[in-house]
Design goal:
It is a single chain. The protein is 66% helix and 7% strand. With 243 residues, the protein is mainly alpha-helical. The longest helix has 29 residues, at 78-106. It has one domain (33-47, 55-242). It has a two-stranded antiparallel ribbon with strand order 1-2. It contains eight helices and four strands; from the N terminus they run ααββααββαααα. The radius of gyration is 23 Å and the shape is globular. α3 packs antiparallel against α4 (113-135).
Length: 243
């Protein structure tokens, strides 16, 4: 006596290929990658007036614990410490609402919860690190957990522990949740852009200018905007190809 799965005479390998293809199409139908990217771009550009017209505070320190040299000063905006966590949490909640709406409309479950929860946690953690960094400017050299770190290298880590670093890390989580290789590559590239100074791209504004922050926001916001547009076009093309 034998047991057959599927229609009589159907090749099990073809059934497996069909099931894998169906699972892939379901994952693609779940995706709304364009929304978080465009929403993050929107809050980035909306931060321009926040940074431009906020009052700034300055904290100075002498050289680092192990090195010598002149002290450094860090200028920060208290308004940014309120704006960015609120904006990021709003984006993550809105993303969850969009994914759940599309899930209900298509009758397909969604796995956006890990992205939202992780994104909010990262946003709050990054805000705490930024607040600490604003009161502890780096100068000279430091020993951290047995590692010898120069202030310049630590500055790159601080750029990672920023609002844009939080965005990139949350996008990595979303890419892993969706099993979206294209989004994963984009998130890694975005984190790379976040880690380098804006003048690397040939655009620098004097620190004394009230617009010195502008390249950082415009460059990162443009990357998010172009990414959102690209994923929108790609998803629409995939839908047309599937119909």
């Amino acid at each position: 006596m034998t047991t057959e799965f599927g229609p009589p005479g159907e090749d099990p390998r073809q059934l497996l290929v069909g099931a894998l293809g169906l699972a892939r199409r379901v994952r693609q139908a779940q995706r709304a990658t364009w929304f978080p990217l465009l929403a993050l771009a929107a809050v980035t550009f909306a931060a321009v007036p926040v940074d431009r017209y906020s009052r700034y505070g300055t904290t100075c320190t002498a050289a680092g614990h192990l090195g010598s040299g002149s002290g450094v000063c860090v200028t920060s905006s208290p308004a940014a410490f309120v704006y960015w966590p609120a904006a990021l949490v709003l984006v993550y909640v809105a993303t969850a609402a969009v994914y759940l709406h599309l899930s209900a409309a298509r009758g397909i479950g969604t796995r956006v919860r890990p992205y939202v929860i992780t994104g909010i946690m990262i946003a709050l953690l990054v805000t705490g690190v930024s607040l600490w960094a604003a009161d502890h400017p780096l100068a000279g050299e430091y020993d951290v957990l047995g590692l010898h770190i120069q202030a310049q290298s630590a500055a790159s880590l601080y750029r990672l522990a920023s609002a844009f670093g939080a965005m990139g890390l949350a996008l990595v989580v979303l890419a892993c949740t969706e099993r979206n290789r294209a989004l994963f590559a984009f998130a890694v590239g975005f984190l790379a852009v976040t880690l380098v100074p804006p003048d690397t791209f040939g655009w620098a504004v004097a620190r004394s200018s009230p617009w010195s922050f502008l390249p950082h926001l415009v460059i990162n916001g443009s990357v998010l905007l172009l990414g959102g547009i690209g994923f929108t076009v790609a998803q629409r093309s995939a839908r047309r190809a599937g119909t």
